[in-house]
Specification:
The complex is a heterodimer of chains A (464) and B (223).
Chain A (H helix, E strand, L loop, with lengths): L4 H10 L6 H50 E4 L4 E4 L16 E6 L2 E5 L17 E6 L5 E10 L6 E9 L1 H51 L12 H46 L4 H26 L9 E3 H19 L2 E6 L4 E3 L2 H18 L3 E9 L2 E8 L6 H8 L12 H15 L2 E6 L5 E8 L10
Parallel strand pairs in A: 9-11
Antiparallel strand pairs in A: 1-2, 3-4, 3-7, 5-6, 6-7, 8-10, 11-12, 12-14, 13-14
Helix pairs in contact in A: 1-3, 2-3, 4-5, 5-9, 6-7, 7-9
Chain B lengths: L1 E5 L3 H13 L3 E5 L2 H10 L4 E5 L7 H10 L6 E5 L4 H9 L4 E4 L4 H15 L6 E4 L2 E4 L4 E4 L2 E3 L3 H13 L6 H8 L8 H15 L4 E4 L3 E4 L7
Parallel strand pairs in B: 1-2, 1-3, 3-4, 4-5
Antiparallel strand pairs in B: 6-7, 7-8, 8-9, 10-11
Helix pairs in contact in B: 3-4, 6-8
The chains are: A alpha+beta (464), B alpha/beta (223).
Chain lengths: 464, 223
């Protein structure tokens, strides 16, 4: 009945499904940068290479025109000759990478000096063709070739002009290197910028989360609504839910309390009146009244117990139980019993303060009912939780009595009523919080009640 | 033992009052805090049974007021409250003990007797003076192990003297603590009842100190 909005909020806050928003956005940004920048780089590099190659080809083509223009055929001597040396020293230097060659059917007829004794492979294609080949020294060459008819020459001639691709390749490589560097820098800047943007953009969400943790830990009651529009509405809605949740718990508690309160006085009257009845009837009426009483108190205690399901966080044990222990200590003092406390004021436990008060109140009350002179309350940290030990120097209990005392509603002494029910309430609380209650023999000689409370939050909201 | 029962629920006040009277207690009732306040300040009681839910203000408020004014008589609180923080507020106001509604009459009686006994400084429930014993739990009196039958009035008288021993108790004090305020006795009545007690217990057990009052003693000790 009280396992409501609180547990749902906590589940949302503490168990994110997979990646956080920030991680998602950053991963998406990374993905985009990693995919898009290389693609853009490849495209740019391809286009650059195409355009550089085209202009290179144009130069080759004009060199071809020059060779053709300088080519003469002397029909008298049946000799081909190139009238000028093409005006470029590179065609003269041996194996410079710049070559021209004119072939006819019989084989090579004329080559540039740079080719020396080597020959360029000839393509049989018609028209003008441009292709990549390996040169005499294995160097990469780009060659342009075409067939021509010279006036007076009986055969078709094949003219090739080749130039080293090293320059071209070096230019492209330099461009690609620069491009790569620029893209890397750009990518780095983009990712950094995106990360900052995500951080800034998600800052309100992080604030909301921190706020939720604050409310969950009990440090605040409401979420701060000073957030960007969409989130502010969400925070307001959450606040409403929280408030309604608290209201529901409070109303449930007070309704149960009022009902119990209204029943108590009439039951007291009936109990007192029943004492005057003949023995048989007296017993019957008292038994039934006892059942009413026990049911009322049991269910009231359960309705009042918040359990581990509300947005309550850690409370300082000493602070929470102080009102009850102080009051009981005063009562004990007037009864001649010393109530000793050993408690680290910094110890905390994840429990509703009122539930903690019920727990300690019931156990101390029991101890005080049986004690001769001393009752001792000790609280210490243990493993990952907290241990409360409440001892008295009274008559104590045998193992069988201890077992019976833990059985629901056991009442061990009519004059000291309530002890059985007190233990039952403590046991209910232990079930709610996942703790344990043990009865032992106390170092003081009487009974010791040992309560262990886990430090962690209950793993899942429980249903009742 | 004279008790003030402060309870606004008339049915409960009647039933509980009657049960306590049956057990030999002298019970006066008040229905509001104001009335109780007046009675506590003008009459003598051995203890107060105080319901916390009163029509004119919380019982703890009245109780705290009495404690502030050094009215130190034992107070047994009747509470219908369940929350420990609420109950503890009652103790902090100065209650000596409490019972939770719905209670057993036997428990109220048990706690009242214990409170009165402790308020006189007796730790043990059985008061002994020589061969004379008074069991505060049972309200029974015996001499040398033989039970003695007393009337309710005689038993109240002796119980008061036993609680007070070895102090001397004046006639006025006895009249205030042992008799109903509407039937205050003249000193003659007390004298008559004291002499009846002497007949039943042995005359040497109750001393008369002229001009001061009475005192129970243990003649066996040669006092």
């Amino acid at each position: 009945m009280t396992a409501t909005a609180g547990s749902r909020l906590r589940a949302l806050a503490s168990r994110p499904a997979g990646w956080s928003l920030g991680q998602r956005l950053l991963a998406a940004a990374l993905g985009l940068v990693v995919v898009i920048l290389p693609l853009a780089g490849l495209g740019l590099a391809y286009n650059f290479r195409e355009s550089v190659t085209a202009s290179f080809d144009q130069r080759l083509s004009s060199l071809l025109q020059v060779v053709l223009a300088d080519l003469d055929y002397d029909p008298a001597e049946q000799r081909l000759q190139v009238s000028h040396s093409l005006g470029d020293a590179r065609f003269q230097r041996v194996f410079s990478g710049w070559y021209w060659q004119i072939t006819d059917r019989q084989g090579t007829s004329l080559v540039s000096r740079s080719l020396w004794d080597q020959r360029l492979p000839v393509s049989m294609a018609d028209g003008i063709s441009v292709r990549n080949i390996s040169g005499p020294r294995g160097e990469p060459l780009r060659v342009i070739e075409r067939d021509v008819h010279l006036p007076g020459h009986p055969q078709r001639l094949h003219v090739s002009v080749a130039a080293s691709r090293e320059e071209l390749d070096a230019e492209v490589a330099r461009f690609e290197w620069l491009l790569g560097l620029s893209l890397l820098t750009l990518g780095g800047l983009l990712i950094g910028g995106l990360a900052l943007q995500i951080r800034w953009g998600l800052a309100p969400l992080r604030r909301l989360h921190a706020d939720l943790e604050r409310v969950e830990s009990g440090a605040g009651e409401r979420l701060d609504t000073r957030l960007p529009g969409e989130l502010s509405e969400l925070a307001e809605a959450m606040n409403e839910v929280l408030e309604r949740d608290r209201g529901l718990i409070e109303r449930g508690r007070s309704a149960a309390g009022n009902l119990a309160h209204a029943l108590k006085t009439p039951v007291s009257v009936l109990k007192t009146v029943a004492d005057r009845l003949p023995e048989a009837q007296r017993r019957q009426v008292r038994d039934e009244l006892g059942r009413i009483d026990e049911a009322v108190r049991h269910h009231l205690a359960r309705a009042s117990a918040a359990g581990g399901s509300t947005l309550t966080g850690r409370v300082r044990i000493g602070e929470a139980i102080a009102p009850v222990v102080d009051g009981l200590a005063r009562l004990a003092g007037r009864r001649g019993i010393a109530l000793e406390r050993e408690l680290d004021p910094e110890l905390t436990v994840r429990m509703d303060p009122q539930d903690l008060q019920e727990l300690v109140g019931n156990l101390l009350d029991n101890a005080m009912r049986w004690a001769e002179r001393r009752v001792r309350l000790r609280v210490h940290a243990e493993d990952d939780g907290v241990c409360l030990l409440i001892e008295d120097d009274g008559p104590g209990m045998s193992a069988a009595q201890r077992e019976a005392a833990l059985a629901r509603g056991a009442r061990l002494d009519e004059h000291r009523s309530g002890s059985g029910l007190g233990l039952a309430i403590v046991e209910d609380l232990m079930t709610l919080y996942g703790g344990s209650l043990n009865l032992e023999t106390a170092a003081l000689g009487g009974l010791a009640a040992r309560v262990r409370l886990p430090g962690a939050t209950p793993a899942s909201p429980r249903h009742r | 033992m004279k008790i003030l029962l402060v309870e606004d629920d008339r049915a409960l006040a009647e039933a509980l009052g009657e049960a306590l009277r049956d057990a030999g207690l002298l019970v006066e009732t008040a229905e509001s805090g104001g009335e109780a306040d007046f009675l506590v300040r003008t009459e003598r009681y051995d203890a107060v049974v105080l319901d916390l839910g009163l029509p004119d203000g919380d019982g703890t408020r009245w109780l705290a007021q009495w404690r502030d004014d050094a009215i130190d008589l034992p107070v047994l609180v009747l509470t219908a409250r369940e929350r420990w923080s609420d109950k503890a507020a009652g103790f902090s106001a100065g209650a000596d003990d409490y019972v939770t509604k719905p209670f057993e009459t036997a428990e109220v009686l048990f706690r009242l007797r214990a409170l009165v006994r402790r308020s006189h400084g007796h730790a043990h429930p059985v008061l002994t003076l020589g061969e004379l014993t008074y069991d505060t739990h049972a309200g029974s009196i015996s001499v040398a192990g033989r039970p003695v039958t007393l009337t309710a009035q005689e038993s109240r008288l002796l119980a008061y003297l036993m609680h007070a021993a070895p102090r001397i108790v004046s006639r006025g004090e006895l009249a205030e603590h042992v008799y109903d305020r509407d039937h205050e006795p003249d000193s003659n009545v007390i004298d008559v009842q004291i002499s009846r007690l002497r007949r039943k217990l042995g005359s040497e057990r109750i001393e008369t100190l002229r001009g001061q009052g009475y005192r129970v003693v243990a003649p066996e000790d040669g006092a």
